[in-house]
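Working notes for the structural subgroup meeting. M.R. asked for a predicted model of this chain before we commit to crystallization trials. I am recording the input and output together here so anyone reviewing the notebook later can reproduce the run.

Input as submitted:
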Amino acid sequence: MAKLTDKVALVTGASRGIGKAIAIRLAHEGAKVVVTATTQQGAQATAQAIQEMGGQADARAVDISDEASVAAVVSEVLKTHGTIDILVNNAGITRDNLLVRMSADDWRSVIDVNLSGTFYCIKAVAKNMMRKRTGKIINITSVVGQIGNAGQANYSAAKAGLIGMTKSVAKELAGRNVQVNCVAPGYIQTDMTADLPDGAKEKLLEAIPAGKMGDPEDVAGVVAFLASSDADYITGQVINADGGMVM
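Returned structure, recorded in token form:
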């Protein structure tokens, strides 16, 4: 039997890549998935893929850097489905540059989406979970939030901030039986990594003991585990899906 049958999952940034793989995996496990993206078209494409495989999904456009937009979408989902059992905060952007060349706008936009957006989503969903005394919150951070990366001071800071926020919120919600955890992907084959030059890819592979990049499904599998009852006694943790890179 699917482990997430009758659960309602909200996944941000799910139009492609890791977010899309997570949404599809949760649906495969039986969850009703609310797919969100910056555009209705992007969210609908993933929702349609889920529906075509026999799963249940609907789509919502949301700007997670805007608290009012997040609150409105969460309110709509609660009215439609009555609950949100699983929240996966995956949405994120990059604006890479060396720190001395990075504009204040590029700094703020990455922090606003990757870190503040997650704060808005958790805040909007947490009261419902606390009231029910059950829930799963899974934040997608990154290995660069643990080890840093030249040219990504903004992204690394946001992802490191997610780890600190995860541990703090996990402590706040543990008494209400709400588990809050992070998944830290390493280098995953997505649209972003596909554009890397061959020399850069070779250098990356040298730093990965497994000798290969991961697939979005590798991350989705960890998320599905954390979203299930199998992980009821796990909270405040960072689980790396990185082929041993951080090790």
